[in-house]
Amino acid sequence: MGFSASAGRMVITDGSGNTRFDSDEKLFVITDFISGSVTASAFTATASNVDLTTVNSQTDRTLSSCNAYADTIRGAFRMSTSDARGISISGWFNASGTYVHMWEGGGGVISAFTANVRLSRVSAYTFFCSGGGVYLRERCRMTSNFSGSSSTVITTSVAAPTFEYKLFAGTFV
After folding, report:
1. How confident is the model at residue 173 (pLDDT cuts 50, 70, 90)?
2. Is the pTM of this model over 0.85?
3. Burial of 95 by CB count in 10 Å (0-12 exposed, 13-18 middle, 19+ buried)?
4. What does the alpha-carbon distance between residue 145 and residue 121 come to, in Å, rounded to a whole number?
5. Where are the domains of the chain?
6. Residue 168 CA to chain centroid, in angstroms?
7. What is the distance between the alpha carbons of residues 135 and 17, in angstroms, rounded to a whole number?
8. What is the 3-state composition of the chain as percent helix, strand, coil, each rounded to the nearest 5?
9. Residue 30: enclosing H or E segment and its boundaries?
């Protein structure tokens, strides 16, 4: 184990010389704890031989205010929905990054990357903070399959998910 300090920097290493602590590395400082729940939107796309209704939506839902210096979200969420897609009722998940709830091709859920399919339905959700606010961004892009008949309408929907969240807003200093 080694310790060195110079010019305002401390470094601690283990017996193999691997750095275990370096004061020059930024540490995450939590400025706010945010918890609650929010329900996102439901979406429906339709198609027939005559008409096509697509969905291309992005909405930032305000969850809370936070310290204006906060630029990073850490924490967890769980999601529930009446829709069988995604990880609903599967437990708590890391809220850093983007959760992709629906990822489907023209024929349904994409189960392998060996088939040449058209990605036609995606819904994704991201917790983030910016400018003193904490948000949930919902992004949905959907098209339905063409029915081949003007009298037949094919509908594709995603139900409104509800997110329960426990988040930490902060920044690295």
Report:
1. confident
2. no
3. buried
4. 10
5. 26-172
6. 15
7. 42
8. 0, 60, 40
9. strand 28-39
